[in-house]
Specification:
Layout (H helix, E strand, L loop, with lengths): L8 H14 L1 E3 L7 E12 L1 E3 L6 E3 L12 H14 L4 H5 L12 H6 L14 H7 L18 H11 L7 E3 L15 E10 L6 E14 L3 H20 L2 E15 L6 H5 L8 E4 L16 E4 L14
Parallel strand pairs: 7-8
Antiparallel strand pairs: 1-2, 2-8, 3-4, 5-6, 6-7, 9-10
Helix pairs in contact: 2-5, 2-7
């Protein structure tokens, strides 16, 4: 797989500019209106053959037009949290991750009609649906081992047994439990596709499509692109494949009013090359649950300075 000579980050930057120019001002559940556009796609290459070698470099599409060096550790820790199927925000808090604090606060849970939850109980969000779909949710303290359908493990097993299946899909959108979640899933489902090698005889490459119903372009989308790219590399590593491409679909794509003044700063910048992702294991892992944030290393990341986009709850 050979990368295009045009930096793939320009897809993102140009879409930011398009929303700024053509976006429709709309109200939403927060106090800040948005400039929004309907529908967009982006493609990111996840591996490239190293010159003079048969080895592939794992590419992490971590945006470079704003500094995400501190954010990437949070991305890895949240992904580990999702993979675990846990829903207790205290697990993230204890690792210094604050991104779910507002949604897990007593005030927010009460406003969402979740008075029965203790503070920091996020309800059956992303990872819980990935690992326990269909189970009844009680609280973040309950043990759900063996309960519900483990979509993530099923997909991994299916890739090994039936790699060219068109059913390698995981959904976090469970209509029966939306009201039990502190926040309905924005990135609602993802699907893997396996391609053969050039001879067409051996399953070799793994790609992933992500569908995001609601997309905060300045803050959420860069975070989620890097997270799903990492997840694709993990699943490829587990199944003996090479991550090929991330195809990213956003539906309601928006910029909040309190973010607008910062966008021209980012869109004026020239991207640096995307860094590499490496897995640092002492012993070879056996299952998806063995992949921890501490094993994930970003190599060669260079970026422009930080942009402090505000977050709307």
């Amino acid at each position: 797989m050979k990368k295009s000579t045009r930096h793939e980050e320009y897809q993102y930057l140009e879409f930011l500019e398009k929303i700024m120019k053509e976006g429709i001002t709309k109200p939403n559940r927060t106090a800040n209106k948005t400039k929004s556009l309907f529908g967009n796609t982006m493609r990111f290459t996840l591996s490239e053959l190293q010159e003079g070698s048969t080895n592939y470099r794992k590419i992490l599409p971590l945006l470079t037009t704003k500094n995400m060096s501190k954010t990437v550790d949070i991305i890895f820790k949240e992904l580990e949290f999702f993979i675990s199927g846990k829903t207790d925000n205290k697990i993230l808090k204890n690792q210094g991750v604050k991104i779910w604090n507002a949604n897990g606060s007593r005030e927010f849970l009460d406003l969402a009609g979740l008075q029965k939850y203790q503070e920091d109980d996020l309800g059956p969000i992303y990872g819980w649906q990935w690992r326990h779909f269909g189970a009844e949710y009680e609280s973040c303290q309950d043990d759900y081992s063996g309960k519900g359908f483990d979509q993530l493990q099923w997909v991994i097993d299916e890739i090994k047994k039936n790699p060219y299946s068109r059913r390698l899909l995981v959904t976090a959108w469970n209509p029966l439990q939306i009201k039990e979640m502190c926040l309905p899933p924005c990135h609602s489902f993802f699907q893997f596709v396996v391609d053969p090698d050039e001879s067409g005889t051996k399953p070799t490459f793994l790609s992933c499509t992500v569908y995001q119903r609601s997309a905060d372009l300045p803050l959420g989308v860069p975070f989620n692109i890097a997270s799903y790219a990492t997840l694709t590399h993990i699943v490829a590593d587990l199944t003996g494949l090479i991550a090929k491409e991330l195809f990213y679909i956003t539906i309601d794509s928006h910029i909040y009013e309190n973010q607008l003044e910062f966008v021209p700063i980012q869109t004026s910048r020239v991207p640096y090359p995307f860094p590499s992702l490496e897995f640092d294991f002492i012993n070879r892992v056996k299952t998806i649950d063995d992949y921890k944030a501490k094993h994930m290393k970003v190599i060669g990341y260079q970026s422009h300075p930080t942009i402090n986009y505000p977050f709307s709850v």
